[in-house]
Amino acid sequence: MSLTETQVLIIGAGGAGTSAALHLAQRNIPCVLLERGLVGGQASGVNYGGVRQQGRHPAELPIARRAMTLWQRLTEIVGTDAEFTVSGHLKLARTLEEEAELVAYLDVAREHDLPLRLVGRNALHEDYPWLGPKVIAGSLAPEDGAANPRLLVPALARAARDAGADIRENTRARALRFDGEMFEVETEYGLYRARWLLNTAGFWGGAVAEAFGESVPVSPLNPNMMVTEPMRYFIQPNLGVVGGNVYLRQIPRGNIIIGGGYGVSDPAVPWSRPRADETRAAMALAAELVPEIAGACVIRSWSGIDGQMPDHIPVIGPSRTTPCLLHAFGFSGHGFQLGPAIGAILSELVADGHTDVPLEAFDIARWTGPAERPDHP
Amino acid sequence: MRTIVVGAGPAGVRAVEQLVTAGLRPVWIDEAPDGGGRIYQRPPLGLTRDHRQLYGMEAGRARAVHDTLDALKSRTDWRPNTLVWHIDPHNRTLETLCAGQQATLTYDNAILCTGAMDRVIPLPGWTRPGVTTLGGAQIALKAQGCAIGQHVALVGTGPLLWLLAYQYLKNGARPVAVIDTTSFAHKARHAAALLPGGTVFWKGLWYMAAVRAAGTPVFEGARPVAITGSGDEVKAITFKTASGATRQITCDAVALGWGLKPEAQLADLAGVPFHFDEPQHNWVPEKDATGRTKVPAIYLAGDGAGIAGADAAEMAGARAALALLEDAGRTVPGPLTATLDGALARLSGFRATLERAFPFPADLARAMPDDTLVCRCEAISAGDLRAVGGRPATGAAPELNRAKAFTRLGMGRCQGRVCGPAGAEILATALGRDVAAIGRLRGQPPVKPVPLASATVQEAAE
Amino acid sequence: MRLKRLRDLDRPQINLTLDSTPVQALTGDTVLTALLAGGAGALSPNIFAQEPRAGFCHMAACQDCWVMVEGLGRVRACATQAADGMVVRRL
Questions:
Q1: From A293, B112, B220, B428, which residue has the greatest number of CB atoms within 10 Å?
Q2: What is the pTM of this model?
Q3: B135 closest CA partner among B126, B149, B122, B148
């Protein structure tokens, strides 16, 4: 069995793993990224494509703000804009309770310098005359937008490779060990040894953490997604609703991407598929939000596998059991926008020993208990 | 036991016949307003040609299928005009759409007889109005009494090319050219091996002879180059003859097709594994000789499970129904089962030889000019596809679904039905790999477009 | 393109409109036949290629003949029976 030694071993080539490989390689730190399938094959590649800050958990906003600076320079960093467009994100309320939530979030946004503007009923229907009558208020985050998730991660991976990272696709980590000094990961194609291990394995990050005695309640999350045939382009902002039971956006080509509800999966295969009843429910909700699209046909639907945490925020930061093990997984359905910043943060933890982004809220200890923090160099 | 048969072509009719004989009352679904499938499609009411005029030498078989179909409708839960757009093999449910209404149907067993469509190789100008598939040109004649134009050129290869030429001729629309990419010498070499095919072989020879005898310009071993025209009119087809000379023939319509490919989306969504069948040069869902699959309760029959032709489809339909009945613990007639098994085995050998006699000219797809559209839905060109086999910003696409993700090839309304085979050849060439090694476009629900509005008028169904 | 009627010509005439232009057809026609035998030339254009289209497979597979029919919404022309008075629009 062949042996590959490197400085940093990364498990899982989604947005977090590929951006970590890119940032490490840019700092000339040798790294190998192992991916069980193809890069961006699961949550990072098949998600809705929202590049959204609005509505995030306050603890995520500093990461989201940092990510946005990277999104804005994406072409410079990876050679493509991955169809990133700043279209604004318009979050809609359909009841007074939902409107109250929009209002409450204004304070959170202000604290984090996130531009956000409440739009009342009259102005809303004047600015967006195609909205259905049930919508009574909205809040617009003008900096937010959307991108093509099928392109982002492969582009990050290619940039990482160009910068010197070694990315091995179709290479599943089947056993992980730490011998007190080095990590050892066994695959079908050989053995990998490294000083550092980054766990960016999405849902499967739970199994990686488990291998080092850290058990977290991560479950598979399968967003139910679909797309319509092209229509006249008229829905500019990325649309969401309070509660999140439907979200939709139109790309300039004219297709409308709709998400809502959850599909089913078997992460062991891995395999995922949308559910017909959830698809129908989302179709009905979407048509209620924008009645004009009711005549369009859904031409394709899909799902994928993300890791869901019970508190809907990821685990990010150092392990509590094992030195030089860093986690970044369980993004609970909203990691796409964060991905580019996660790699920057992880690379700083490896190279500098610290990062300016506050990570306390994401500590794995919130599930494993306050064990003594091992010494990370 | 609730059994659902999807499709009422020759395979579906014979499957349902066995189920009804065994005392079952299956749910029977077809997307079309009537059964018969594409091969024995009947014209709508008001069109009066008889079986002999419509189906020629196949009139007897067509009549037998139609008589059985009509006799069976009232003995089943017959649901025409109904699209099955998704299947859930774990909960054993089918999602259907009929007249704008959705319904979920549960099943204990299902036989999928979903048929086939033309396999196409794009060439410059192929998306222009006036260009159809060979199958499309045949349906226009059979079901609507129309030719696709005044001066029709037929391009491609396979039995359908010659049958269609003969049918157009018989109906007073002699083709202006039959352009067969298979050379006469190649076909002749396989003739001896086709002899055991019996009547099918002799009928084929008859069509070819009749087309030639009528003075139809025939070009064998030729390569189509482009269909030219302007706006919504075809004006000519350009091709290279076997000797390499460039010819242009004036025409106002072109039909093209290179054999058939299974419409196997439902089998795919049901989780049936696929393999690349070399003689057919098609990805086909895996089934055993009886129609059983690795997915519990899913049986396959007819061309949707691999191209075998209408006669084989009838037998395969009956055989799959008997397999289903056997699995359900019913006693089935042993002699019938043995007869079907023997006949199907013989036909499968004949079919492989037939596919070799009319090979898919993969080189034609591989040599497609960069600016030719491969994916007619999303307007993705051969050059767009070749680019993701090279060094794009995303890195190369190592297989076809990745190429789809990068380029949108196969992401349109037809979901890659039309562009899949040619797209695979182009990507395989760009990557320097064998076409079987780069995979196939995976099916995604819905099998065909489903209106958003249909979600709100949901019908509660068992 | 123009379909040429060869058989079953003796059928009652029906009248449709396509984008307000009258089209004469015969009972038993599909919308596709009615329009393409009646001189429409093309159905809905492809918006990405920006070129005219007129269907391709005639068997509800290629999805290239979607049109809007008043009262029915979006339909495939090849899989929809034409009817007298039908109002059809290109997408």
A1: B112
A2: 0.96
A3: B148
